[in-house]
Amino acid sequence: MQTMEEYLNQLKAAFAEEDIDDFNELKEDLLEQLAICLEEGQTEAEVVARLAPPEEIAADYYADLSLDAAINAKTSVVPREKIQDVFIQTQKKRMQRFIKTALNVLKPLILFVLVVFLTFLLMYIIKELKEERNLAGIPTILSLLLLAIILQLVKTWILKKQKLINGLSMGLLALSLFMLLFFSVTNQLMYTGRQYYKKVNLASNKHAAFSFDSDADVEITTVEVSSTDKPSLMIKGRFKESDIQKIENSSYQNKINLTLDEENIFDTFTRTGRSEVIFFIPKGTILDDFHLGLSRGDLRLLDIQTKNFDLDLVTGDVYAKNIIADEGNISSDYGDVIIEESAMNLKVKSDSGKTVITGMLGDLSIEGDKGLSILKFLRSDNIVLNNHSGRMILEDSETKKLAATATNGQVIVKRTKGDLLMANETGKIVSEENQGTLELNNGSGPTIAIQENKVNATVSSQSGFIKWLQDPSQSVKITAKTETGELRNDFVDVPDNAKYTIDVKSKNGDVKILEKVE
């Protein structure tokens, strides 16, 4: 139930400040009608209930003729249907005026943007005609459409030529539709290059080097050939004319340096598909450099000797075996990296893929985010493993020094010899049957150690759970303490052993030192 005062307040809110005089006139009229109805015995609630919504009455007042009709009506209510019709028509007129004003204001800006885009398309067409000897289908069609739109925008400024401009616009539109049909039927909307095959030979086995970069999808393989052959490269697939010229001139001073299918704004409408590259490397040849930089691809690399081994891959898988190098660098964002039976000082950077390295000789450094690293049978002076939230597993290896750190991932080291440091913040640490010096540091995650051999070890945690399982036949003196957690130490009565000691402590977590049971 609504009073006239409440109704009038809502109606006033629907009027703009500059129209408040009109509102006051309408208010007087409604109050007058209310007084008449009250004299006739009607209630205030009945009168207000028959009135049209305040928004509709306010909209009606913006149309002068309808407002006059409403004010002079003999009935005690304003006709709802008439108010609605006036409101709709008034809103349409307002919207038309707004759009017209906005177009007049924005037309120069819109025209500028269209001219800039048209200029880019024309540059695209000219560049592709010059370098690829190909008429770019989609840019040509878009250019014709943009010309038609631009002519329509400027025709209001050229009143005497409007018929001519309309004719030109229609002609450009018809031509663009014809070209769209033609390029679609002939499958030339996208530039796909041409099929091409080439084998590039180097002059000598001495100081030979390969460097290959591509933003297209590439399958790469290496093949070991006779020591009497020369290093060479075979490439086949669909390529742009400009890239074919690069391939023809790729060999220089006994080096092959190729960069194909570079992604740039002028290749937006180019699709060449997957290509294949095979490197033929004579047995016993030591390359100066072997570099691959790919956006997408699959690599199978075998039997390579080089001073520098460098792989940079965004997405795709790498399988490498029998790689001998002074230095190795592998970067892979999303693919899997598998390396077997190789020798080099290697740095690996992986975002979310899987890294598997087995049977490798040389220093190793792995930087990861959330992937999985599996390392087996390594022989290294230094191993550095850093991972954010992934999982690192090192087994059956020898190193002078290991540093494995994570934020909230898992660090697992088994049957490994050396000075071993494992640190984590919130993740899990597992040490099993290792030899040497052992240091385990964890923030709030669980720490588990399973040990048969005697080791010198320190284990510390802030609030994480610590569990140490020790073979009682090889028992050593283990000291353990926790400030607020639960403590159990089955080796508390073992006599001191100056050579082998294990120190376990946690600030708030539980500590359990248990006898290992087979």
Automatic annotation (TrEMBL):
Protein name as it appears in the record: DUF4097 domain-containing protein
Domain DUF4097, first and last residues per copy: 215-367, 371-513
Organism: Enterococcus ureasiticus
Taxonomic superkingdom: Bacteria
Coiled coil region boundaries: 13-40
Transmembrane segments: 102-126, 138-158, 170-191
InterPro entries the record matches: Toastrack_DUF4097
UniProtKB keywords: Coiled coil, Membrane, Transmembrane, Transmembrane helix
UniProt keyword Membrane, yes or no: yes
